[in-house]
From TrEMBL:
This is Nucleotidyltransferase. It comes from Dyadobacter helix. Residues 1-12 have a biased composition (Basic and acidic residues). Pfam families: NTase_sub_bind (PF08780). InterPro entries: HepT.
């Protein structure tokens, strides 16, 4: 119980004078991680939707969507996408400052480039030979 109270004090800045710059940096990191969570969710759902559009209705979750996206050439690094999924699950079920820092670094060092490459590929498909792909 005391450990929980000490962590709460540390997180709220109650145990010492808080440095505004450090607080802002922490808020930005937390915001980036939150944005990562919903961007990752959106990305695998787009993979699933595109796969269904192509006739594959057997995708039941994010792992299936990533595997199928790789097979379809929508992504080039399935292993890193699977690592991203592990990171995403960690952000949902655990809060630990060291884990958060490691995931923040993965986002800025790797995951952002995976998202950008996927977005570029999907944009090419939408604006290229399959114009109007997702229009009703």
């Amino acid at each position: 119980m005391n450990i929980g109270i000490e962590r709460l004090k540390a997180e709220t800045g109650e145990d010492e004078e808080s440095d505004l710059d450090e607080d802002l940096e922490e808020i930005l990191k937390e915001g980036l991680i939150k944005r990562f969570e919903y961007t990752q969710e959106l990305a695998w759902n787009v993979m699933k939707d595109y796969s269904e559009y192509q006739g594959n209705t057997s995708i039941t979750g994010s792992r299936d969507a990533i595997r199928q996206a790789f097979q379809m050439g929508l992504i080039v690094d399935a292993k890193e996408w699977m690592n991203m999924l592990v990171s995403r699950n960690l952000t949902s079920h655990t809060y630990n400052s060291e884990t958060a820092e490691a995931i923040h670094d993965e986002i800025t060092d790797t995951y952002i480039f995976l998202f950008n490459a996927f977005e570029k590929k999907m944009s090419e498909l939408i604006h290229g030979s399959q114009l109007g792909l997702f229009e009703e």
